[in-house]
Amino acid sequence: MATKTREGQLVEAFVTLADTLVVGYDLLDLLHSLVSKCVPLFEASAAGIILTDEEEFEVVASTNERSRLVEILQLRSGSGPCVESVITGHSVSVPDIDASGPKWPRFRHGALEQGFGSMFSVPMRLRATTIGSLNLFWERTGGLPEEDSPTVQALADVATIGILQERALRESDVARQQLQYALSSRVVIEQAKGVVAYTRGASMDEAFTLIRTHARSNGVPLADVAAQIVSGDLAL
């Protein structure tokens, strides 16, 4: 099979996100699809998404445990590029984490410890509402080329519309319910990853791949599969 061109991958990413505007979808699977497509598109080492319900931030999607840990570190300290992007509603570029200075000491230490040299965060926003950030990590320094910044923002914007979409625009409770579902489901998914990793002798990343593959193959929401694993009704 021929390798897709970058343009082909980008079209595929936008088509996947656009589908959420007209058909039913699994919110968590949408977010994981977005971060998974961003890694090869922008030659990143990892990608992740944090969402907020205006009271707390949570990591709801990540391509590997290293980026998830860095994002969690920022949320716990209340500072870092990911958090700043949500608060300000603007993109935040860190082309050299080691030289980022004293602004985010815990982020700097944690990111370097996980082997990352640069990162880029864009807000997930719709008009005046910012619901989270899409975050890219690289092991090298340099970060995201300037010409790619609008493309990353465009992907984040379409994903945001997919999350809120018309139902949420008509009724604000729907948006809150969608976000709360993603935030609360994160807990059971992490528990399920731990169960599968233990029983299969696999890494957490491998465990999540098994869970997600089963969910997509059987047309079952990711959170439902995770709940079945945690309750013992399903073994992978």
UniProtKB/TrEMBL annotation:
Residues 169-230 form the ANTAR domain. Keywords: Kinase, Transcription, Transcription regulation, Transferase. InterPro entries: ANTAR, CheY-like_superfamily, GAF, GAF-like_dom_sf, GAF_ANTAR, WH-like_DNA-bd_sf. SUPFAM superfamilies: CheY-like, GAF domain-like. The keyword Cytoplasm does not apply. It holds the Pfam family GAF_2. GO terms for molecular function: kinase activity; RNA binding. This is Transcriptional regulator.
